[in-house]
Amino acid sequence: MIRIPRGTKDVLPTESYKWQQIEKIFREVSNLFGFQEIRTPTFESTELFLRGVGETTDIVSKEMYTFLDKGDRSITLKPEGTAGVARSFVENGLASSALPLKMYYITPVFRYEAPQAGRLREHHQFGVELFGSESPYADLEVILLAREIFKRFDISSVFLKINNIGCPSCRKKYNEILTEYLKKNTDKLCQTCNDRLYKNPLRILDCKIDSCEIVKADAPKIIDHLCPDCLKHHDFLIQLLDASNVEYVIDPYLVRGLDYYTGTVFEFVSSVIGSQGTVCGGGRYNNLITEVGGVNTPAVGFGMGIERLILLLEANGYKFVDDKKPIVYIATYNQSYYVYALQLVTLLRKEGVAVEIDVVGRSFKAQLKYANKKGFKFVLVVGENEVASNKFSLKNFETGEEFLLDKKDLAIFIKNQRI
Fold it and tell me: Is residue 43 over pLDDT 90?
């Protein structure tokens, strides 16, 4: 038997309705905030992620699915969503459109890492990107959008962590200060962080190894070394969050795991889904468009892991409702009434009623057994008396009630009984 690759998962029909409901809310909230959908390829030129995400990040150095295609070109399955959207922004000349430009996406992403709950080698992200504004108001907009999604699901067990990691100018000075501190603690850093020390010391603050966490606890804080412009941006955003009644915690060591971030960074975190508690993460990436060949364009956005969101919803007792499956099954006493039953199928589907009919050739008894096993709410019986009188017996499998209805009343009655 051929098995599914490690770190991937089938979304079966018994689960897919959950994804559909989640994606529906993503789209509704995005539209409410004026964001429109963009779809980018599943794979891109490897160079895009080397330049955009950063060669010293774990994603690029350890986790990317990279291969040579038949044209001997280096191709990578997208490990995150933002870089591809940035490439599209540049390649399609979107900088000339009315700015700010607001876009969202729902996409699979691929990272070769140890599979665990809420983190698969193929997982899925919902993300938003806002191009063309460097104002803290834009930061607030994407944070409010994320919060609105959590509110739609009635999730109260998430909290916002926020920080500012500065612009290239003040970060350069901070990196020098941080490096001097870390050099005194190299014996306590893991091997990966020792390798990062002179390449990208800021990445060390993102390490989750216990010994590195201890070193981080006393490290200098970047927020104490921001330039006047970055500090002004940060302080104004905090004022906006307060004015919008958004609860938050300032985490001076929050840096995120991607090199394109500048200025504001944030995460929505939950303590109820274990070690993989970050459900949503984002921030500013004002230099990314330039890095991938475009004109200087400020930008801000976030990515939200759908698998982790499902874990969070289930941990919070959220009740998904499978409102997509057919609720009516039409059973015929024998095959001689099948053509007439098909007319009812067409009639009901035309009126927006989801209905199924036997496609196997089962006996009447077997049809009823199948309908009960599949969980249909109603069974509509078609036989000699029903065809002759145009009145049909409709049985509610959940309550045991039976109704005798005229053909013309079937659709309206079923719709009224839908809930």
Answer: yes
Q: Which domains does the chain have, with CATH numbers?
A: 13-167+227-315 (3.30.930.10), 328-416 (3.40.50.800)
pLDDT > 70 in the chain, percent: 98
Query: Tokens in use for 101?
Result: 């430009």
Q: What is the pLDDT of residues 96-152, one digit of tens each?
A: 999 999 999 999 999 998 887 777 999 999 999 999 999 999 999 999 999 999 999
Both tokens of residue 262? Answer: 């500048």
356 contacts 324 by C-beta, under 8 angstroms: no
**Ramachandran area for residue 76 (φ above 0: left; ψ -120 to 50: alpha; else beta):** beta
- Amino acid type, 246: V
Q: Which amino acid, one-letter code, is at 30?
A: S
Per the CB < 8 A criterion, the answer to whether 255 and 54 are in contact is no
Residue environment code for 41-62, b if the CB has 16+ CB neighbours within 10 A, otherwise e: eebbebebbbbbbbeebbbbee
Give the separation between CA 89 and CA 95, rounded to whole angstroms.
Answer: 7
Whether omega before 100 lies within 30 degrees of 0, making that bond cis, reads yes
Q: From 308, 323, 309, select the one nearest 17 (Cα to Cα).
A: 323
The pTM score is 0.89
For residue 294, count other CB atoms closer than 10 A to its CB. 18
The pLDDT tens digits for 183-232 are 888 888 888 888 888 888 888 888 888 888 888 888 899 999 999 999 99
Token pair recorded at residue 256: 């995120």
Neighbouring CB atoms inside 10 A of 89's CB total 24
**In sequence order, which ranges of 246-363 are alpha helices (DSSP H)?**
288-291, 306-315, 338-350
Helix axes 136-152, 228-243, angle to 10 degrees: 40
